[in-house]
Structure formats: C-alpha cells, structure tokens
C-alpha cells in the first residue's frame, strides 16, 4: 500500500488552463487580468487601434468553462473601476455591464455550437468561435449602443469603447487564436529550436513587406498575406498566430493611423483580421490533413499486418479497371509472381484459361461493384504455370464521396482440401 501511495503522489505538470482555482481566486485572477487589459485599451490600445479586453475575457473563460460566473464578476469589477478611474461616470458602470453581458452571450453561443474551448477538435471549431467573438460580439455591441442613442434618457451616455467595434474586431482576431491554440492537440506539433530560423525569416519578410507595401499601396493586405501563407506551411499554429497578430496591428496602423486616402476603419480592420487569420486557419487545416493521413497510414499498416499474419492468404490492391497496383509478400509466395512482375497486370492474368474464357474475372468485378463484395473458388495460376486451388474474394474500396476507386483481392490457398 505504501508503494502505491508514493507512486500516485508523484508530481506531475498541470497545464495553465487546468490549474484548480477556487471561486474567490478566480474572481481575483479575472480582476487582475481584465484590469491590465482595460489599462491597455485606455492607453496603448488607443494608439494601436486595438481593443483586447472582451476577446481576452471570452478566450480565457472558454479555456476555463467551470469558472465562467466568478470570471465574469471579476471582469465587471475591473472594467468598471478602470473606466471610472479614467474619467468615467455612471456611463462607465453601464458600459462595463454591457461588455460583461456581451461576453456572457458570446460564451453561450460558442457552447451552444458544442465547441469545447479546452479541446478544439478542428479548424471549423476555431473559425466558428472567431465568427462569434471577433465579428458577432463587437457588431452586436455597437448595434445596441446605436439603438440606445435613440432613447432620450440614454442619449447622453458615452460608450466610446463599445462603439469602436473595428478596434474590438482587430483585438479579437489578434488575441483569440493565441489563447485558444496554446497547448491544444489541434496545433499538432510544438515550436522547436529548428523552427527559429524560418520563424525569424518569415517575420522579417512579412513585417518588411507589410511596411513597404503599406507606404505605397492603399490596401496592402493581399501582398502581406503571401509570406504569411508560405509560413503557414512550415510553422506550428501558435508562433504563426503571433506573427499574424503583429502583421495585423502593423497594417492597421500604417493604413488608418497613416491616414491613407479612402481608408475606412471598419474595412481596414476586417481586411487586416482576414489577412492575419486565414494563414492560421490554413496552418491548422494542413495539420489536420497531415494527422488524418498519418491515421490512415497507420490503419492501413495494421490491416496489412493482420492480413499478412493470416496463414495461407495473400492480398492485392486493384485499381478501378482491375489492374494490380499493390501486391503483398504472401501473395507473391502463393502465386509465384514477384511484386515487380505483378504490378500493372490485369486481374484475369492469375486465372486459368478456362475461367478467363468463361469471363469469370470480369463477372467477379461486376458482382463486387453491384454488391460490394464477391468471391469465387477455383483453380488459380502460379508464375511457373502450375495450378493451385484457392478462394478469391473481392472487396470494393471507395473514396470520401462513396465512389468506387478500386478493389482489394484476398486469395486463400485451399490446396490441402483438394
């Protein structure tokens, strides 16, 4: 018993999003984090055309769904106190309450979609979350303020931060992927030292191209997205998200703060958000495709091991026309045809002449197409011209759309029964 107790008490690393917190501690942590974010919004955020408070609250509480209520309480207290401290009055309390209500609505909508912020499973989960947090929440808040301005008693209230939805959109697009992707399996692989040179090169190229194109072009977003899309094929998701966020802020300030003719804050923020987020989505999608390819390869390997281990059986892969495209070692031993001799041969090559004249191979293929499987027991040909008694089974293989793309042939040697 002592040995079991000691082994079970071994220290283990707890991820930051899973570290246990009491409700009081959650309120305190949320207060500190949101207060720091609000201070940023009131100071540097105004210079950078960036607002991060709401996005940070929603992203962190998506990672810790059990602490939503105390987290929202801490967020309200911090937002209200900082707002009043920066010269706000009663409107600061109303605005803090409005922001917390919008945060709660965003969390509810994301959970309504069945998305678990602790374990993002796909690029689609991240895209749907971003639509709610980066687009729906800022625009809905601005719409509420616009509706309240029509009410005489509320017309005098100032909701400067809520109305500034382009800054909120840009902040959510910059921050949310970073918070949600840290430590997730969807990231597929970690940032390693070997990635540093390419990361430095990609950062220099993206920021440099963004700065040069921002000076000469009215909307430099398409040009800047090229190095980011290239980086998406080589970098893990988190450093790419960081690089994309830097480019978003840079481009927005070059275009809006630089007062480019014809620049609209909303259009610029949306273009910058897409420029930064699309490479992240591409990176995650490529990671999912690599993971799916690995799983399929492992599954195929396990199936081959099982088939190879079945005594007296061999298998071959056929294309849609019945020509051999795969040939395992057991089939080579059964038929006497080496792999290089079998590849490319038609299916009927391995049947005796009488069966070929009776069109049995072609009938087997047609029956497999109709029913999904077909089998035949009879004489088969070896490479040296000898015959052996065997059972041949055909199974169709299909692509993702359900279309038949080939067949799997399994041959079982029944010579002992003859």
- Structural class category: alpha+beta
- Mind telling me the C-alpha Rg? 31 Å
> Largest sheet, if any?
5 strands, antiparallel
The sequence of SSEs as H and E is HHHHHHHHHHHHHEEHHHHEEE
Report the helical percentage: 55-70%
- Overall pLDDT, averaged? 77
- Tell me the number of helical segments per DSSP (H or I, 4 or more residues long): 17
Tell me, what's the shape? elongated
Low-confidence stretches: 1-14, 259-263
Spatial order of strands in the largest sheet: 2-1-5-4-3
Terminal residue distance: 62 Å
Task: Give the DSSP E fraction (strand runs of 2 or more residues).
Answer: 5-15%
By DSSP, the count of extended strands is 5
Could you describe the 3D structure shown?
The chain is of the alpha+beta class and 418 residues long. The chain has 17 helices and five strands. Strands 2-1-5-4-3 form a five-stranded antiparallel sheet, sandwiched between helices. A hairpin with a 5-residue loop joins strand 3 (373-381) and strand 4 (387-398). It is elongated. It starts with a helix and ends in a 5-residue tail after the last strand. Mean pLDDT is 77; it is low at 1-14 and 259-263.
Give a quick set of tags describing it.
about 425 residues, alpha+beta, 17 helices, about 60% helix
Structure, briefly:
This protein is α+β, with helices and mostly antiparallel strands and 418 residues long. It has 17 helices and five strands. A five-stranded antiparallel sheet has the order 2-1-5-4-3, with helices on both faces.
Task: Please give the structural blueprint.
Layout: H1 2-8, H2 23-42, H3 44-48, H4 53-63, H5 68-85, H6 90-112, H7 123-148, H8 160-163, H9 165-181, H10 196-216, H11 221-232, H12 237-257, H13 265-309, E1 313-319, E2 324-327, H14 329-335, H15 339-342, H16 353-357, H17 360-371, E3 373-381, E4 387-398, E5 404-413
Antiparallel strand pairs: 1-2, 1-5, 3-4, 4-5
Helix pairs in contact: 2-5, 4-6, 4-9, 5-6, 6-7, 7-9, 9-12, 9-13, 10-11, 10-12, 11-12, 11-13, 12-13
